[in-house]
Amino acid sequence: MKKFVMVDSHTLKGTDFSPELNLLSENGIECVLAECKTDEEIINAVKDADAIGLNYSHITKDIILKMQNCKAIIRYGIGFDTVDVEAATERGIAVCNLPDYCVDEVATHAMALILDTCRKTTFFDKSVRAGLWDSNYGYKMHRLSALTLGLIGFGNTARLLSHYAKSFDMNIISYDPYAPDNLFEQYGVTSVSLEKLYKESDIISIHVPLTDETKHLINKDTIEKMKDGVIIINTSRGPIISIDDLLEALKNKKVCAAGLDVVEIEPIKDPNCRIYNYENLVVTPHAAYNSVEASNNQHMKVAKTAVQVLNGEMPYNVVNIKKLSK
Predict the structure, then answer these.
(1) Which letter, b or e, does each residue of 226-258 get, where b requires 16 or more Cβ atoms within 10 Å of its Cβ?
(2) Is the pLDDT assigned to residue 228 strictly greater than 80?
(3) Alpha-carbon radius of gyration of the chain
């Protein structure tokens, strides 16, 4: 009997794993819900697995070399930076993600952070609770139709966000060297260079994966290229922004506000962490993906992907498919 192991099921506490259990069982695949917290525990759990799933665990080259039968490594999310894709490819293992399972939720969350920072809802809530009743307190507000939204990356989430932002009559520009020109035209978005995006955007929203090239993409130098009083939104990956440089820019008002669903080091459990000293910073706990519908979709897509790969198929969500086919 083939075997699928979800290595860190405890990180999805409270979610329903019945889609995996049922669909995999129907296809003659055992489903094991492990709660691995160390590399050694992962190795022991997956050494004879035919496919594995993971949420936050890091699947390193050492772990991959210890797996005897594995055909698929499936991430329970969009990003796959926790998997050594090169090592998996060398072993002929398909690395899969879920590029479209929570697009609605993340785009909605990004729009919520844009509205929050532009209309200062959380900012004003904090000031009112502190006894300050002043509608002019803090940075100045502008109507959305007067603002330019710059999207770094124009994948599924950014495209849906552009649709939402269009309803507010925002001007939208985007940088994505991998997207065809007709895609921007289709959504009524202007394709620009990254330098131009920095220069012209009133709000910058990040929608790229974490790679060696995008780590600390937003840093002291790139922030200096932005408009004074820019707003920065991140629902992608925390390390894309240098948090030290962002906090300094918030302090000196170069960045007037920021909305972060992800931060460079997660989770932040210290209530006295310096990040909370910035009243013009809104932080949510990596929750943009979250909804009942997205969770159901997440589990079903993982199960279907495992079945397809173990049946000898190559589904659309294999991120290293080009290298495996060589």
Answers:
(1) bbeebbbbbbbbbbbbbbebbbebbeeebbbbb
(2) yes
(3) 21
- DSSP one-letter string for 77-116: SS--TTB-HHHHHHTTPEEE--TTSSHHHHHHHHHHHHHH
State the catalytic residues. Answer: 237, 266, 286
State the DSSP code for 179.
Answer: S
If phi over 0 gives left and psi between -120 and 50 gives alpha, with beta otherwise, what is residue 169? left
Q: Which two tokens stand for residue 308?
A: 């397809």
Q: What's the rounded mean pLDDT across residues 10-34?
A: 94
| Edge-to-edge order in the sheet of strand 230-234 | 190-191, 171-175, 148-152, 203-206, 230-234, 255-260, 281-283
Q: Position of tokens 């009083």?
A: 229
Confidence at 251, pLDDT banded by 50, 70, 90: very high
Strands (E), the chain: 2-6, 29-33, 51-54, 72-75, 94-96, 148-152, 171-175, 190-191, 203-206, 230-234, 255-260, 281-283
Per-residue DSSP letter, 150: E
282-313 residue pLDDT tens: 999 999 999 999 999 999 999 999 999 999 99
Tokens of 56: 């936050």
User: Strand 230-234 vs strand 255-260: parallel, antiparallel, or unpaired?
Assistant: parallel
pTM for this entry: 0.90
179 within 8 A of 156, measured Cβ to Cβ? no
pLDDT level of residue 91 (50, 70, 90 thresholds): very high
The first and second tokens of residue 22, run together, are: 């049922």
Sign (positive/negative) of CA torsion 250, 251, 256, 257? Answer: positive
What does the mean pLDDT of the chain come to?
96
The pLDDT-based confidence of 46 (bands split at 50, 70, 90) is very high
Mean per-residue pLDDT, 40-52: 97
| C-alpha 314: how far from chain center | 24
